[in-house]
């Protein structure tokens, strides 16, 4: 069992989880650097083709109740689908991820995936530059994904449920490199707030 990682901004510990190794470090100002392995990914193709996915994650169990978790992420894009990812994980075939990802057109893009036995895949919008802000919110039995380029207006990316029952969702981070040789991504300005997001569509 991997040792727990205690980040000063989070009220819960993170633990390395998954099939592939994941390197991580937290510096004195709270910057979390996460290194994902080559060919790492979290995706179950809905057409049934391809092998099973493999990835390494940092996951933790947040306290009960509603919250928001946000961070500024930076990705040194090199290969298609390189990404920094927030993940909500219930089981191997039930998870959701919010990605700042290198698209097939080689453009930094906000992407989301919701997986219930198989994955879907939805591109939200392109971003100029190699950094963006991502936010995960729990709202009762539902979840919301938002992204921002200026940390002022938050665009809704997804509003969904994973149908959690006996198994509670864990939340964490991934550095993925499905077509590449690995990737080191950073999460800065990590912010956890115990609150209920009252309107997922109003940009706040």
Automatic annotation (TrEMBL):
Transmembrane annotation, as ranges: none
Pfam family of the protein (one): DUF1349
Gene3D superfamilies to which the protein is assigned, alphabetical: 2.60.120.200
InterPro entries hit by this protein: ConA-like_dom_sf (IPR013320), DUF1349 (IPR009784)
Highest taxon of the lineage: Bacteria
The protein's name: DUF1349 domain-containing protein
Organism: Actinospica durhamensis
